[in-house]
Design brief:
With 246 residues, the chain is of the alpha/beta class. It contains 7 helices and 9 strands, in the order βαββαββαααβαβαββ. The protein has a single domain, classed as P-loop containing nucleotide triphosphate hydrolases (Rossmann fold, 3-Layer(aba) Sandwich).
Length: 246
Amino acid sequence: MVSISLRNVCLDYPVYGAYDHSLKRRLLGHLIREPGEMRIIRAVDDVTIQAEAGARIGLTGANGSGKSTLLRLIAGVYPPSSGSVAIQGKVVPLLGLNAGVNLDFVAEDNIALLLRISGRKPTRGVIDEIWAFTELETRMQRLPLRMFSSGMLMRVLFATATAFPADILLLDEWLSVVDEHFAEKAQARLLKLMSQAAIVMIASHDQPLLRRTCTSIINLDHGRIASTITVSPPAPDAFELREKRA
């Protein structure tokens, strides 16, 4: 059964040289091998979350409250400093889409690399299907990603990241794209992924979005759960990631 279980989870970051603001002190410290100051930042603090199939969880809170860090912890990017994390099911994290990308590689090789990182086999058919979704010219598959505009790059990365369904879908804010046409197409694809996923977790500042798409909203404050509210399940025709324009 698909599930997320976090019990009393904490995540600590060591921050080195946090108070060495003086350039002179930094240079002299290196010359005399003076150890830099270090402090520990607790990014996630005693968080307990239980989620079963059907859960649609929103994470909200001020910048630096731990939303993105918590998603990365669930995705396995960061190991917890203490507590336990148990994940049952295939996780697809739509967080930093450019993770693992090499801009000097051609687009086709980057797609194959990202598929392998996610545990998928990069067959010719899969790569062609991903490329068709981008609506970019076929010849561009053999160009380095460094030559792509930001909008073109987003198309390639989004199409690759959303090529397969997920048991657990993790979203960090809404994905920005350049033109309105592709934004609508991307939303339709993402909504399909969300409807197929057993569990969806979204980090966002957009309260209307969270209330439209989630069954519960967790408010984080300095890495701790400040409050949790239950939201009435949205009607299918109201399940939109972006507000419809008048």
